Amino acid sequence: MPSVNSGPARTYGSTATSTMLVAGALGSLSLQLFVIPLTPLPGWLLVPLALTSTHLWSILHESIHGSLLRDRTWNDRLGRALAVGYGAPFILLKSGHLLHHRFSRTPRERTEVYDEGSWSSHAPVYYFRLFGGLYLAEVASVVLAVAPRRAWHRLRHLLDTPDTVTALLFDAITGRRLGQFRLDAVLIVILYAGAFFAYGPDWWMLLALLAGRAFLVSIADNAYHYGTALDEPLEAMNLKLPRLLESFVLAFNLHGVHHKYPGLAWHSLRGAFLADGGRFDMGWWRAVARQLRGPLKAASVVEVLPQADREDRDAVERMLN
Length: 321
Fold this sequence. Notes:
Helices cover 60% and strands 2% of the residues. The chain is mainly α. It has one domain (15-320). The longest helix has 24 residues, at 15-38.
C-alpha cells in the first residue's frame, strides 16, 4: 500500500456491485413508498425497511465522493436518483458533506461544541438535531426551490457567520447547480406527494417511516466526531461493528480511515484500516450513546483519539483542498 504521504490510489466500486447496491436501494424505496400501500403486503414490513435508511445513506455517500462508479456522469446520475428517494437534493447533500470534510472540528462545523452561553441554552437545538432535526433540515430545503436567486443571496448574507457552513453551502449551490437543485426538489415533492396519496387514510404510516429515517440518519451523523479534538478536520473515530453490519453500512463505521483517505471506495477501507494498525476507538453503540450527554463547552473537549503523525495529517489535508 502506498505511504500516507503520497496517499493510496483512489478506488471505485465495481459496476456490477454498485449497480446491485443502487437497484436494491431503489427497490427498498419503491416498497416503502408505493408497493406496500398499494398491495396486500403487511404494513409492519415498514419497520425493517426503515432500518435500511443507514444503508441508503451509505450508498449515497459513495456517490457524493465519486466512488460509486468510475464514470462520473453515471455516478452522479445514480446519486441524484437515490437522493430524490432519500428526500433531499443531491447537490445539497454533496456540497454539505464535502464542506464537512473541509471544516470538520473547526468553529464552522463542530455540532456539539459551544464557546459561549450555557449547556441549557444550547441543549434544545442540539437534541432536536440529534433526534431527527438534521434530516428534517435537509428535507425542508426543498422549499427553497421556489425562491429566486436574489433571495438565496439575501439568505446567504444573513446566515454568513463564522460558526456555520451554511453560507458556503449556498455559494456551492447557487454558483452552478441551482437549476439541478430546483429540478431535484420538484421531483422529490412529486414523488412524496404521490406516496402520501397512495397511502390514503394510512398516511400516518408513511409519516412514521420518515420519522424513523430522520432519527436513524440524524443520530448517527455526528457519532464519529463527538468529543474529538478541535481544529483537526481529519479527526474521526473508527467504530467497531460486527462484520455483517459493517458490510451493511458499507464500512461507514471506519470513519477515521475515510476522513484520512476520502478517495477510497468502501470496499478498500478495511484494508487501509488494517494497514494503519487496525485499532478501533470504541464500539458503535457506545459512540452513539455518548452523544446523549449533550453539548460540550469548547474548553472541556478532550481528544478521544491517539495523536497521529502530524506530517501525515498535513499531507492528507492538502489532498482535500
